[in-house]
Amino acid sequence: MELGEAASSSFAWVRDYRRAAELKAMSVDEIVRKVTTGPEVWSGPLSLYCRSVVPGTQRAQALARALAAIDCGLSVLISAGVLCARLSEEAEIVTERLAEAIAAGGAPARLRRSAGETLARLGDPRDLRELVAVTAGTYDMGGEIHPNSEPAHSAPVGSFRIGRYPVVNSDYSRFIEETGRNWSSMSGRQPERASHPATDLTWHDARAYCQWLTERWRRESRIGEDEVVRLPMEREWEAAARGQQGKFYPWGNDWEPEHANGEETGFNDICTVGLFPEGRSDFGCDDMAGQAWEWCTTLWGPDMTKPDFAFPWAGDGREALEAPGNIRRVLRGGCFSSPDWKANGVYRGSLEPAGSWRGNGFRIVVSSER
After folding, report:
1. Helix (H, G, I), strand (E, B) or coil at 356
2. Rounded to whole angstroms, how far apart are CA atoms 89 and 74?
3. Which of 1, 215, 356, 358 has the highest Cβ tally under 10 A?
4. How do strand 328-332 and strand 137-141 relate by DSSP bridges?
5. Based on the domain organization, do 341 and 195 belong to the same domain?
6. What is the pLDDT of residues 98-140, one digit of tens each?
C-alpha cells in the first residue's frame, strides 16, 4: 500500500469512528434516516456503533426492528443482527430478512459470509434438511478434465431425493448428542458455524448418521417405512449436480467465481450453506461445486492416483458397502480450496473410508430400500 493510500485508509477509520459516536447520540428514527439516505456513507459507522450496543436492550430491540424494515443491503442487516439476542422476536425478523437477501444473491463474498454466520448464530429459519427430487433417466458422466474422470459417457440413474444442502453442523450435532459418537471437529459446535457443512468426519461417520436419520425420520413419518436415508452413489451425485443437460458446473459450462465457495473466493474454509444461489444446480441443489468434498458410497480402490473402479461406469460391484479398510471411497464436488478444474460436477476424488478432514462433508439421499 502506498503512503497516500495508507493515510487515506487511516482517515477513513477515524471518520467512521467519529460518525459512530454521532449515531450514539441520535434517536432510532434519526439513525434510520441517516442510513436510508446515505447507506454508502453510514453503513460502516453503523457497524461500529452496533457493536457497542448491548444486545436485547430496549434500544437494541427498537433499532434492530427499524433497520430490518429498510432496504439497504446485507451490511445493514448484519448490523441489525449484532443487536439481537438469539431466538428473540427481533432475531426472527432479522433472520427472515437475511435469508431473503442471501437467496437474492449478488452480494460480495465477504458480506455473504458474514451474513451467513449472523444467520446461524441467531437461528437459521431455512429448512436445511430440504430434499429435492431427481428424476430417473440416463445422465452424462465424466469428461476430459482429468484422466481419472475419463471417458465422457452416460449411465442409468433411478429416481431419488437428495439433500438441497450438505448436512450441516446443527443437524450432525443432534446425532452426536443422541448417540455419543466421537466427533473430532474443533469448531463444529460454534454457534456461528451451525449452518456450515458438517466436516471432520469419516465415511463411516456419514453412514452412521444416515442410519440414525432413517430411524428418526420413519418415526416422524417424514419418509416411508420402505425408504432409507443413505449416501449417494457416485452416478446419483453427478446426475444431481450436472442435471439432464450434463452441465460441467452445476450452473453451466463456464466457471464463475461468484457462484461457489472455491479457491478464488478466498475463504480457505467452509461457510454457511446456500450463500451462492447463483451456483444452484438445475434440480435445486446448492453447494455442489466447492465448499466441501462430499462422500459417496462408490468404491475407488487402494491407489489414490488411479481408480480400480474407473470410468465408464459399470455394474461391477463398485457400490458394495463392505470392502477392506484400505479401499478408498469416492469424493465429489471439490472444496473451499479447490480450483475450478476440481470444483465441478465431473472431477473425481477419493479418500480412505476412515479418513477425515475439515474440507470433507456429505449430503444425504432418500430412496426406496435397495
Report:
1. coil
2. 19
3. 356
4. unpaired
5. yes
6. 999 999 999 999 999 999 999 999 999 999 999 999 999 999 9
